[in-house]
Amino acid sequence: MKAKLIAYTGQDSPIHRLTGAAKLVVFAVWSVTAMITYDTRVLLVLLALGLIAFRVSRVRFRDFSFVLALILVFFLMNHVAIFLFSPLEGVRIYGTRHDLLHLVGRWWVTEEQLFYQLNVALKYLAVIPMALLFILTTDPGEFASSLNRVGVSYRIACSVSIAMRYIPDIQRDFQNIRFAAQARGLDISRKEKLVKRVRHMVGILLPLILTSVQRIETVSAAMELRGFGQGPKRTWYSARPLRAADIAAIAFVVLLAAASFWLTFEDGSRFYNPFA
Amino acid sequence: MARKASPVEQVVAIGIGAALFVVLGRFGSIPSGIPDTNIETTYALLALFAVLYGPLAGLLIGLIGHTIKDAISFGPWFSWIIASAVVGLIIGLAARKIDVRDGEFGKKDLIRFNLYQIIANAAAWFVVAPVLDIVIYAEPVNKVFTQGLVAGLSNIVTVAVLGSLLLAAYAKTRTKKGSLTREL
């Protein structure tokens, strides 16, 4: 289990300096826009802007390079699956058919299908830079206060902050328990029979869950003793006031979303159709 | 009536449950022998925490855990994130009737737990995930329903086996209500 997890890098750049609340709003509006539109032009603009923001943030390639393989695998599997299951989905959506190549049986390569899958790809790629950037440039401590600022209850904001805080600890616990179990001969790899594999997994999960439940009791007792959850509101040590750059970023993304909805639905359909 | 977790305990349980969801989601899958189908142990964990801490905790563990897990691996896939939240919510509804915290997990509880988890997984993976895939991503209908069917069935089996085993084992570690008798 040498896999790393991507995390906050703590550098200094215009993107890092934005407050967490502003970045959260930008990321949320960005994702919703990319979810709704299927307009190729809008998606291309989103992707380009995302890449520019990436450049501006000056995050180092090695801080996120290890997730690129995962992204690529997910991406390829999804595209192969789409083509295998529905080679004429593009024809159905765009209403025309331009055959390029016949493979076997019902699997024709059509211009419409290629264009449709290009759009599916863009829709996914348009969100990735922003998602990575959000994780890489937002201090987890400040993140909770930003959630609270945009209207999420502070109890849930604290849950999120606890989750981020405990991921490394639990990862370490899991690793220790797993090594201890393996030292005692509990194998969960392909070499063992399925039934035994599952039974061995219980032997690893149970101690992990029991220590976690204990930890929940300790942490919640500590929080209760400090009066957590007594007031309807709370203040945050890491909260920062919105500055001009934050307001500009939020205004920009809202305008961008408005413009993309207008462009997308101008012709009454969420798809941009170059074949008509 | 089961002992209820205090609101503060729920806040912490959501946080740590979500962290467990992330760690098990990334590193806790076991190969099942069928290609590209893993036993996702993380859903057994989600089921256990939903039963222990209730529907709201289940919903938020699924939502927060899956969002973080996706965000730190291949980018958020929103339709499946919402499906995970639905699983936690529905299994959590069984929490009021199952007293694992008091060391009770008999045959009746086992059947009730599995009934809820089958409904939860079916609703999430046969309905919510594919429908949102179509609405949000306009993916081919037959592809998303096949994917949902495979994911749903494998999760139902995983939770039925691993989830039940974990609940039974957890119940054994708790002190039974009324287990003390007065000496005369």
From TrEMBL, chain A:
Keywords: Membrane, Transmembrane, Transmembrane helix. InterPro entries: ABC/ECF_trnsptr_transmembrane. This is Transmembrane component MtsC of energizing module of methionine-regulated ECF transporter. It comes from Paenibacillus pasadenensis. GO terms for cellular component: plasma membrane. It is found in: Membrane. The keyword Nucleus does not apply. It is a multi-pass membrane protein. It comes from the Bacteria. The chain crosses the membrane at residues 27-54, 66-85, 114-136, 244-265. The keyword Transmembrane applies. CDD domains: EcfT (cd16914).
From TrEMBL, chain B:
GO terms for cellular component: plasma membrane. Keywords: Cell membrane, Membrane, Transmembrane, Transmembrane helix. Its main location: membrane. The keyword Transcription regulation does not apply. It is found in: Cell membrane. Belongs to the UPF0397 family. InterPro entries: ECF_substrate-spec-like, UPF0397. It holds the Pfam family ECF-ribofla_trS. It is a multi-pass membrane protein. The lineage of its organism: Bacteria, Bacillati, Bacillota, Bacilli, Bacillales. The keyword Isomerase does not apply. The chain crosses the membrane at residues 12-30, 42-65, 77-95, 115-137, 149-171. NCBIfam families: PRK13661.1. It comes from Paenibacillus pasadenensis. This is UPF0397 protein B8V81_2284.
